[in-house]
Amino acid sequence: MDKNSQNLINQARKLIRNQKKGVLSTTGGGGNFDEGHPLGSLVTYVSAWDGSPVFLFSSLSQHTKNLVNDDRVCLLVDGTDNFINPQEGPRVSVLGTVVPTNDEALRQRFLSIHPEASLYADFGDFEFFIMDVLGYHLVGGFAQANWLTNGELVLSKSNWTEIANSENSIIDHMNSDHREALYLYAKVFLGKKGKNWSMACIDPEGVYLCNGKKISRLDFDTIISSVDDYRRHLVKLARTARSKNDT
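Now predict its structure.
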């Protein structure tokens, strides 16, 4: 795997982490269409610590019914909102398979980004799913299409396990003792307004900040795998943000 290809994979994963919804394509038709017909459905998701999309589906939805017979999917993630011509913006198709998961930490992660889903997450027909990513089709704009199927598509366990295990303690500490830093992260690095920012969830490549119903992501410029390095990086970001805010 050459460095350029891995950089493109990292770019694709970053785009997925920065969005909360996409179009999920399944096969199985529905209505009067044959069993092999594709169906596109608007779905919400959150990225797991390794970058794998996590979903909450109802068994009553047609796309969930389709998954029973064919678990192959494609998730289209659109990052073109701020482009006058959407064809010039980035988007990625994530190809893989989807399976149910009963991981309580993934449930908590999903609901931290989609709190409105807590109203129905415990209904009997709802279940969480996770995607096994097999490849990306990344389009960065005109003539910038790349198939990415080899390399580290999602982060290895060595990169995310320690962060995942300490996520709640890091979040509790930041939200209890460092609200000013979170405010400065949002203001200085993301250009966001409002003072009541809190940390929603984290991963080795960044943090999700929330202010009421607003969710924003702050990406890191590197992968951080240890808790000590994570804390040091957050302190460094706070110092940089204070310095820029004072100028």
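The chain has seven helices and eleven strands.
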